[in-house]
Design brief:
The structure is a homodimer of 242-residue chains. Chain A contains nine helices and twelve strands. Chain A is an alpha/beta fold and 242 residues long. The first copy, chain A, has two domains: 159 residues, MoaB/Mog-like domain (Molybdenum Cofactor Biosythetic Enzyme, Chain A, 3-Layer(aba) Sandwich), CATH 3.40.980; 74 residues, 2-Layer Sandwich (Alpha-Beta Plaits), CATH 3.30.70. Chains A and B meet through helix 1, helix 2, strand 2, helix 8 and strand 10 of A and helix 1, helix 2, strand 2, helix 8 and strand 10 of B.
Chain lengths: 242, 242
Amino acid sequence: MPKTAGIILVGNEILSGKIEDANAAYLCRELRALGVDVRRIVVIPDEVAAIADEVSAFSRDHDLVFTSGGVGPTHDDVTIEGVARAMGVPVVRHPALVALLSRHYGDRLTETHLKMAEIPEGAELAADEALRFPTIVMRNVHVLPGVPEIFRRKFDALRERFRDQPIHLRNVFVRIGEGSLADDLNGLLAAFPLLQLGSYPEFSNPDYKVKVTLESRDRTYLERALADFLARLPADAVVKVT
Amino acid sequence: MPKTAGIILVGNEILSGKIEDANAAYLCRELRALGVDVRRIVVIPDEVAAIADEVSAFSRDHDLVFTSGGVGPTHDDVTIEGVARAMGVPVVRHPALVALLSRHYGDRLTETHLKMAEIPEGAELAADEALRFPTIVMRNVHVLPGVPEIFRRKFDALRERFRDQPIHLRNVFVRIGEGSLADDLNGLLAAFPLLQLGSYPEFSNPDYKVKVTLESRDRTYLERALADFLARLPADAVVKVT
């Protein structure tokens, strides 16, 4: 079975419309390219109980879980506490992180800074030479920060851990509408039940009316389905195939 | 109690990274401006069971629910069926929608087009003169399409239904980091426990290091909290207050 993933965005700032999240869309693209199937995304407030509930359910239901946001030294940074509660372990200070923070802050190090040395007990510190600060991984839960630049840098450092069998994609752009297309799509799915088939109408594009996406992990199956689909369509319906 | 809202995005195309959703961010901003508290967003696949589970939970837990996507004539448009299952009612054809589609398509009307006349039994058709097609509202669940232009037009037509007491916001931009700020934020929250307080570090902005947001539905309380916060900060820490 291919790997599944779930994404938890922790952020009052997203829910209140102050900030547009960019991390989920990035992660969906990257994981898809690695062959991982993202099954669910949720955005929740900066609240320990809400985070614990989601992390617990996501960790059980998916192979890989990624959290974004809620890590840092202030009152609203409660993701580590939520993950620890989900896993039924206490929050502890990790000596290696304390050492890292001590080196960085020197004499200016405060109790507040030391909040960033906290991890759920038993978590792995996934380090990489390119990273200033390691990523906390608790079982299958990868704790990433909300700031997009750092989020991406940390994901990049771990990327190869997640690679799975690739998902192949073909796109068919047609100049007929979804109403005319629906029977052909249903016929195609009846003949190729394992195909992942998407249909995306475009209302303001002069070049085509619908983009149809065909996907499979089996390239031969995909090409057979594509040929079958093209044979179903009226000759002048196809704008292009990519 | 102010109104709460939840947003359900139905979309394999979002999960697979093909399309970046724009509707949730738009809705968060608009609902916030109306004084509605968005508590949760979820992105799920085009699957009836998943939609039914989420709609059922969201409808119970929030005053207002909005779905985006999965409406249309093709095989992957299953939101109406999911909402109906969540509410324990059958899917039926609405005569007014059949009439609308008949007028639009004339002789070309097919069974496939008629899928767009389906509603959960008992749903309201929220119409507006500016809209070509009414919005389906099942109890507290508002079924909106995924296409952003139409999503916005439909939300606009219903907007005034959702208005609540406004949430007031003040922003304080500071040139000190979160590590130095955390104690002041904790002190402020201890003195003003009803304040909604956010802290957003900015790593690549030369003008300030952290944006602090203070929010409340009570303007006087907010202004008192702001004065208290400014008094806590070192004199040269504040870049600007908006």
